[in-house]
Amino acid sequence: MKANIFKLLPAIATFIMMPVLITGCITVSVPPGQTQEQSKPAVTESAIFTFAPIQVSPQSLVAGKPITVTMKITNSGTAAGTYKADLYIDGVIITSQNIAINPGISADATFQTALQTAGHHIIGIGQQTLDVTASENWLPVTIKIDNGQMDGCSPVAEGTSLVSQMAVQNNGNMIKLAAPQGGFTISGVNIAGYIKDSTYDFNHDPVIGGSTWVYGADIAVTEPVRQDFTVNIYGDRRNKLYSGSFQKSLFSNIPSAVTVPMPNINVSGDFYIEVLTLNLPKLSTVGGWDHDYWNRYVVHTWYHQLCIGYENSNDPQSWISDGGTAVPGFYPTYNWMIRAEGYQSRN
Question: Where are the domains of the chain?
Fold first, then answer.
């Protein structure tokens, strides 16, 4: 009998395990008077970050100047957390910082940086972006004392040489200007003027025009026309800072303003600009009437001369000059229309 019971045990075990294999679970009986406690899902506390728009100061951005980039981050979760804020400029990561924020608290991600070039840029922190524009680091400045009204021109600067009165004169048109506070860099000299030409005037003057007025061949052989002019810049102590030669062909027969480039000359306080037109001087008679002389005088005086524009105003800051020194007695009330163009560094 006992042997038969032992033979039945494997079968009984198999019968008991079948529901487990079929249903995948085992029913557990709870003793009377007790209830089975229901399982609850685990609650995980976490930090949840929200972001305000990016702010940039100052309001006007200048290339190369420091700027501050700020973004407010709020932790609206139930646990403290750390946010890694990456600063990007034009898609390139510049720097990062880790910001620890308690739940329900806000904190700022603040960066000090600079936009190295002028123009449009995109600033980003994480997924937030802001489009900005930086201006040039230099503030354009024009220094002048004229009002922009050209009343006339000086074709020969009233200069007459002493070598048979037929040599190239060296008198110039000089003006005194003052640099703004903080100094000034000259990148160009703007000159109002035009070419005064006897042939052009004769052919375009309805009163006396109608034929060709040719520059006298005898004068041309004696004194070839200079095609260049010179610009000199002096410092406050009349020390020469620059001297350059330019072609008169920059000007035309119509009055206009021409800017000649300068190699970035730094000045402070008072400075002087001198323009040597290198025109032929006027002829002057020794005495008596000479018809041939008169023709030579008119043609000679007005042939391809660079005229510097002026305003007929009382201005003690303009002179006829000789090597940077004012020559008294010439054009005491004429204000040369010569300007300095350049820039100042923004503060």
Answer: 49-136, 139-345
Query: What tokens does 129 get?
Result: 């972006």
What are the pLDDT digits (tens) for 37-63?
Answer: 455 556 578 999 999 999 999 988 989
Report whether 71 contacts 83 (CB < 8 A): no
The fourth-level CATH superfamily of domain 49-136 is: Immunoglobulins (2.60.40.10)
CB neighbours (10 Å) of residue 113?
15
Scanning the structure block, which residue is given the tokens 């023709």?
Answer: 295
Mean pLDDT of the chain, nearest integer: 78
Strand partners of residue 326: 321
Whether residue 346 has pLDDT greater than 60? yes
CB 143 within 8 A of CB 179: yes
Q: Quote the CA–CA distance of 173 and 241 in Å, as a whole number.
A: 17
Where does residue 186 fall: left (phi above 0), alpha (psi -120 to 50 degrees), or beta otherwise?
beta
CA atoms within 13 A on the CB side of 182: 8
Can you give the C-alpha Rg of the chain in angstroms? 44
Block residue for tokens 């005086």: 301
User: Amino acid identity of 243?
Assistant: S
Distance of CA 39 to the CA centre of its chain: 71
Q: Taking the model in full, what pTM does it have?
A: 0.65
Residue 11, pLDDT above cutoff 60: no
SS3 of the chain: the string is CHHHHHHHHHHHHHHHHHHHHHHCCCCCCCCCCCCCCCCCCCCCCCCCEEECCCEEECCCEECCCEEEEEEEEEECCCCCEEEEEEEEECCEEEEEEEEEECCCCEEEEEEEEECCCCEEEEEEECCEEEEEEEECCEEEEEECCCCCCCCEEECCCCCCCCCCCCCCCCCEEEEEEECCCCCEEEEEEEEEEEEECHHHHHHHCCCCCCCCCCCCHHHHHHCCCCCEEEEEEECCCCCEEEEEEEEHHHCCCCCEEEEEEEEEEEECCEEEEEEECCCCCCCCCCCCCCHHHHHHHHHHHHCCEEEEEEEECCCCCEEEEECCEEECCCCCCEEECEEEEEEEECC
Specify the residue for token string 């009382």: 314
